[in-house]
Amino acid sequence: MLKMFRQSLPLLGALFCSAAPAQVRPAQVHSTDIDVAVTYVAERGKIAPSDCGCFWLQGGSLDTALTFYRGLGVAANLTGGHNDDIASGVELDKVAFMLGPRYTVRASDWWHRGTSGMMGGAAIFGEGLIGGVHSFNTVVPTAAGTAGAASSFAFQVGGGVDVPLGKRLGIRLVEADFVRSTLPNGGNDVQHDLRLAAGISFHLRP
Question: What is the reported pTM?
Fold first, then answer.
């Protein structure tokens, strides 16, 4: 028995040495990603809740996002739009700023590591942002008559897809958001808009 034990010592030592490195693993490091997008924006709105009175605001947006833990992060969006004929002789300019959480999935991690090509490096994100909207250079119905500007709370829920063209540069292939605001409209003072965007994106990693 003693002889068998002595003969097994080298084997046990080899197994211990090979297992030890596998047990001591460095803590996972979560990288911080910064994404910036400059986009063209088209937003479908309407004047009042009854008849459609629909129109499209056209403009642009600056969108930034900081992803810091397993796809979780925070995003900020500044959007401006204009329409020169929402009603007879009535224009509308609108600016919105919103901030909130965003979750981003890199397609290469979602499908399998090592996926190559443009779509393999695509980033798919979803978000929920809150903030405010300001309309001006227009006619706003009020209890006292009309005003030229108004502001309200707003939020948006949606997401989009960024496709890389290189290490840093890419395109925002599409972004679609549902936007709700409460600007005065002479009816229920609620707007449910569809916002579509596409443009150029930049992916940075400090």
Answer: 0.78
